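The following block was generated as part of the benchmark described in Methods. Ligand: alpha-D-galactopyranose.
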Amino acid sequence: MNDPEPTGTVVAVAPGRVNLIGEHTDYMGGLVLPMAVHLATTVRGHRGGDVVELRSHQLDGVVRVALPVQDATSVLPSWGRYVAGVAAELGTTTGFSGTVDSTVPLGSGLSSSAALEVAVALALGATGSPLEVAQACQRAEHAATGVPCGIMDQLCSAAGVEGHALLIDCATLEVSEVPVPADARIWVVDSGQPRELAGSGYAGRRASCEAAARRVGPLPTADLADIAALDDPVQRARARHVRTECDRVRAFAAALRADDRRRAGQLMVQSHRSLRDDFEVSTAVLDRLVDDLVAVPGVHGARLTGAGFGGCVVALADPGVDLSGSGTRAWRCGPPAAPG
Ligand code: GLA
């Protein structure tokens, strides 16, 4: 959304996302199934001048970057690196002065950084398809953090519709909508354990996957027997996760389309176990939260969402199930029109 108001005020809004299933597959050309949520970042202000200046309602400091941006990596306060990264990728030469306001919780796996990047891109006047905006924002994230993230978060934020899951094939970048059944309830529960993507071993996981792919070919379609024959046990486990997770995404999308919540829930639990045992990105806190949630009557499944190492768990539940007291905070995230 990018609505210049009559006064010349630009209001750009970009949502956070919850990934229903398909974790650590995007950067290997696999399948993901994220859903945009009602939590969003809004950038409001005016275009003009040759400086981008933003104040945040949630974060300290004022970001002030002169255009054109030469180097995004040393901007302070550090959230300004995302802003500078986006301006650099877009080649922005017209400045902007305004505010950032966000309801996406920071560092919880709901993609507050992608929401910030996409909202800033739209505010700065990015043109192009949602995919092109997402790709510029992905490059900005790489530049800002040094973390080699995939395309999922930025693409979901740029192309997502609240309450609709997006099946993304990250090899072809083909996107198709998978409606969430009206009587399914998606909950996001914060474990309270903060996560830092940059310090999280994300790049190491990706490097192991790439090493495995050099031996067995693209992991989403690799032969399971070839993966089982890899002699490096770490590469073998990481590759097995990516390969089996892609199968689970496909099966989950089919289960959602058939409104088979029981099956969808089982797949979420399997995904969590694979992330815990093969990909090793879970924590004891997340494991306990998943166990607690799946023990609640009417909850079909739960799993860590996002990169892992802390952050949030996503749960699939029946209507009438109230998880608002779970974890340190919880949100019911869709579908939006459904009551209770
Ligand atoms: C982060 C990255 C995404 C994706 C997930 C894990 O959110 O930004 O690209 O790799 O981790 O699925």
